[in-house]
Design brief:
272 residues; alpha/beta; Rossmann fold; 2 domains; 5-stranded parallel sheet; 12% strand; binds flavin mononucleotide
């Protein structure tokens, strides 16, 4: 199985890379994995200009012609992704943040369902939780099933034995979880996977909102139109009923934000 590891540290062979290599060793002890490393430091990835074209019109309208597409092709080829960033001022590095901004359109139109991700971070001491949670949220929004958050403390002085053992333990546990999850991804691919209420509701909200704003966000509209879910999946009858009820509630609550729903507009006029 192919795993793509994207390193967001400007220090190419720094603590985060060392941690990623240890994780690779742990993974290879458990299965037949082929690792590829991509250093954001070595890529040509311009800063997002904020034109909004990727969201509204589609990614092919992004005016920046650089390595973004090459990176996404690598993400598509791999079964799993390991996203790595050290903590810089309580969050990811600027390299990682720019990469995330450049793929922000995926938060509207996820393309990586059926794939698995693990997020990895190293820190001098603080900001680990915030950084890991952020990377988990982003990779999840891109469609990945995030099965591991691996955080290591790598202080700028020699690690104590206790800390070394703690880090080894964390790496082993993360590798074990990621390995198991990668090996059980068949359900996600064959459509046997059951979708939970929360995920289904999120999908339906996006679908409904993009329908209401189709003139402004045609790329989102095209992506959601006619889709049952992001990937082939089973949706239980109770999930469907509950989602339909909650969807109406959520859309009503969003009535000041989202234009175009006739019924809601009429109700508002009566109240006025
Ligand atoms: C600019 C900069 C900002 C940092 N910010 C934090 C921080 O907010 N909290 C922390 O505990 N460590 C911080 N560190 C320490 C790094 O997170 C830590 O040394 C990390 O392991 C470096 O990984 P690398 O060698 O892969 O770059 C910072 C380091 C740098 C260079």
């Amino acid at each position: 199985m192919k795993i793509l590891t994207i390193i967001g540290s400007p220090r190419k062979k720094g603590n985060s890379y060392q941690a990623a290599k240890e994780l690779e060793e742990e993974m290879k002890r458990r299965g037949d994995y082929d690792f590829e490393y991509l250093f954001l430091k070595d890529t040509n990835l311009e800063i997002c200009r904020g034109c909004f074209n990727c969201f509204a019109k589609g990614i092919k309208f992004c005016p920046l012609k650089d390595d973004r597409e090459m990176i996404e092709n690598k993400m598509k080829e791999a079964e799993g992704l390991i996203l790595v960033s050290p903590v810089y001022a309580i969050t990811v590095t600027a390299l990682m943040k720019n990469f995330i901004d450049r793929l922000a359109y995926l938060c509207h139109r996820p393309a990586y369902h059926g794939k698995n991700a693990l997020v990895l971070s190293t820190t001098g001491g603080i900001g680990l939780k915030e950084t890991l949670n952020y990377m988990e949220m982003i990779t999840g929004a891109w469609g990945y099933k995030v099965t591991g958050k691996c955080g290591l403390i790598t202080a700028p002085w020699p690690a104590t034995t206790v800390l070394k053992n703690k880090n080894t333990n964390t790496l082993e546990k993360s590798a074990s979880k990621f390995d198991k999850s990668l090996k059980s991804m068949n359900k996600e691919k064959t459509g046997e996977m059951k979708v939970g209420f929360k995920n289904y509701l999120n999908f339906k909200i996006f679908q409904k909102v993009t329908d209401n704003v189709k003139e402004y966000m045609p790329a989102d509209y095209q992506y959601y139109q006619g889709k049952k879910y992001y990937q082939p999946a089973q949706i239980g009858i109770f999930t469907k009923i509950l989602t339909e009820i909650m969807l109406n509630v959520v859309i009503f609550m969003m009535r000041d934000m989202v234009p175009g729903d006739e019924k809601i507009e009429k109700k508002q006029k009566v109240v006025e």
